[in-house]
Amino acid sequence: MISSIFAQNPARSSSHAEGKRLFESRCATCHGLDGRGGEHAPNVVDEPRVRELTDQALFEVIHHGVPQRGMPGFSDLDKEDTDELVSYLRSLQGKSASASVAGDPIRGRDLFFGKAECSSCHVSRGRGQFLAADLTDFARDHEPSEIRDMILRPSGEARDVATAVAQDGRKFSGIIRNEDNTSLQLQDRDGRFYLLMKSSLVSVQRQPASPMPVDYGQRLSPAELDDLASYLAAESQASDSSEKEVDPHAQN
């Protein structure tokens, strides 16, 4: 999997001629000559979710495609050609590559599974705990600036945790997902769901789940918050095109 974060090459021509040629031959049939969409593909110039993608994420989309949405991958393009396409797309969007999402998604990934401890409650690409929302596709509906703000000022209530003991001695522990007068649905740390009939239970012990920390403004620097938001943005797009996790040490 291609995984380097590509910056613009200062030796590359600023005319975008090669990128324009590649776009017109590979992309324009579906996305239109101006990139603003057509009958078969969306607007890639004005759409905020595309504009906010890192160059890394754009590279992944071009290289792997988005099969679920009918977009083919162009894995036959080498790194230089793909860089030219990304650079030309940025010119259509009216911004340079450096104006894309602030932060480094690779450092953000390390924070998510490390210092920030996001994975102790959240899942990204199947990794982490299911105690709170799965964040793999979270950035599809939230811009990076909004994600950053939500990290600093979390809202919403945490779901209660319960341990239920059945009449046969089995124990079930997890987040309470649904409950009514006759049943209780739990989701454990591995993501498995259990629908338990209350008539079959001996006891149910409840306790509040730990809420999302409210001190990230002190625990993380502004740059680290940008890194986290950038990681989530990159993962949301990459989940459409590949199930592989971004790895800075992977080879082409």
Description:
The chain has helices spanning 17-26, 28-31, 48-51, 55-64, 79-93, 105-112, 144-152, 216-219, 222-241, and strands at residues 123-124, 127-128, 160-166, 171-179, 183-187, 193-197, 201-208. It has 252 residues and is α+β, with helices and mostly antiparallel strands. Among the domains are: 17-100, Cytochrome Bc1 Complex, Chain D, domain 2 (Orthogonal Bundle); 160-208, SH3 type barrels (Roll), CATH 2.30.30.100. The strands form two sheets. The protein has a five-stranded antiparallel β-sheet with strand order 6-5-4-3-7, with no helix packed on it. α4 runs parallel beside α9 (222-241) and α7 (144-152) crosses α9 (222-241).
Enumerate the spans where pLDDT stays under 50 for 5 or more consecutive residues: 1-14, 96-100, 240-252
Helix content: 25-40%
Counting helices, strands and paired strands, the structural category is alpha+beta
CATH class of the domain at 17-100: Mainly Alpha
Gap between N and C termini: 6 Å
What integer is the average pLDDT? 78
Q: Give the full name of the CATH homologous superfamily of the domain at 17-100.
A: Cytochrome c-like domain
Biggest beta-sheet profile: 5 strands, antiparallel
Any idea what the radius of gyration is? 22 Å
Strand content range:
15-25%
Order of helices and strands: HHHHHHEEHEEEEEHH
| Overall 3D form | elongated
Strand order of the largest sheet: 6-5-4-3-7
Please report the total strand number as a whole number. 7
Main attributes?
single chain; 252 residues; alpha+beta; Cytochrome Bc1 Complex, Chain D, domain 2; SH3 type barrels; five-stranded antiparallel β-sheet; two-stranded antiparallel ribbon; 9 helices; 33% helix; disordered N terminus; disordered C terminus
